[in-house]
Amino acid sequence: MPPVPPPQEDPRPAAARARWRPRRVLIARSARDSAVAQRARRAARELGAEVVELGGDAVRGLAGRNERETYRNAKATLAIVNAPPSALKFAPIPPSADFRLDLARGCPAHCQYCYLAGSLSGPPVTRAYANLDEIFAAVPAHVGRGRITSASAARSHEGTTFEASCYTDPLGIEHLTGGLSEAVRFFGTQPDAGLRFTTKFSEVGGLLGLPHNGRTRVRFSVNAEDITRRFDGGTARLADRLAALGAVARAGYPVGLTVAPIMPIEGWEEAYGALFRDAGAALPADADLTVELITHRFTPGSREVLLGWYPGTKLEMDAATRTQKRNKFGGTKYVYPKELMKQMRAWFEEAVERELPGGVVLYWT
Ligand code: SF4
């Protein structure tokens, strides 16, 4: 696949430019009467997508004649299904939040470094969950039991936190499912809990007037502009993400920047400096802002999947230039060498302090 070309002028309103238009929407039998399925049918009709009412719950029919075609079929398909019982027991998800809360699994965008590669198996179809009431009903049993914000003096005001973007980009499918708005409303009623999500999309209009009560932190996944242009396919332009960041902050949401994946490209200090200056200019002075700093890494498995999806990628994934690290399960990941990491960390922490005064760096990894 050739590198993603620079965005062209688009006559649509800025926030709608990156709106995903699936070719097919599959509705699982057990989810067919849900509000999410009803919304998805309506949106699919408006977008000209085919709606298929499945006779059962299995999501099939994605296989193409080769890996590329299977990828294209899956990325053009939204399935509305019920979350399995295992998704109702929320797993810990350090360092971002106490627990993972999935509204969906899979993402329609085409980022060439996607962190889902290697962590989700099978064709990369987006499965949006319909049994939201069951998911939200599982929240109270987790409140007070987390080890990240719940156990932190500095962050305890956030309550027990639930991260909704571990396996999806919830804003990227919101125009089809409405699940994110439901979650924001639900957490608005939970004084001891908080929702967090991060996104590379920008269509936030539907979130601005919701009764969020400050219990949802909306973060935008951003990068140096050159990296977003070269490697983020099917997402909102950086300028649109930053405009959306300002809009949700002005609507009273706590906000955040997820700077990821950080890469020491040529001139990285200038490139990331410009990112922080633009973010600062988009934000109101009183924004409640956190910053997460995540460097690029890959595993042998994710590298193999990504090279299958994006065979022409220019993304650097050369194990010989990286440091090998083992995780607690014995797996291997490749990160930047220690000295470079130290140098970049010092620069990023100082740059956040300089360009985004009041912004709190949550972690560097
Ligand atoms: S937006 Fe996030 S989840 Fe979606 S393809 Fe890009 S990196 Fe992957």
TrEMBL record:
The record's section on Pfam families has:
SPL
Does Nucleus show up as a keyword for this record? no
Provide the protein name: Putative photolyase
Source species of the chain:
Phycisphaera mikurensis (strain NBRC 102666 / KCTC 22515 / FYK2301M01)
**Cellular component annotations (GO), alphabetically ordered:** endospore-forming forespore
GO terms of molecular function:
4 iron, 4 sulfur cluster binding; DNA photolyase activity; S-adenosyl-L-methionine binding
Q: Which PANTHER family match?
A: SPORE PHOTOPRODUCT LYASE, SPORE PHOTOPRODUCT LYASE-RELATED
**Enzyme Commission no:** 4.1.99.-
Determine the domain of life of the protein's source: Bacteria
Query: CDD domains from the entry?
Result: Radical_SAM
- Alphabetically ordered keywords of this record: Lyase
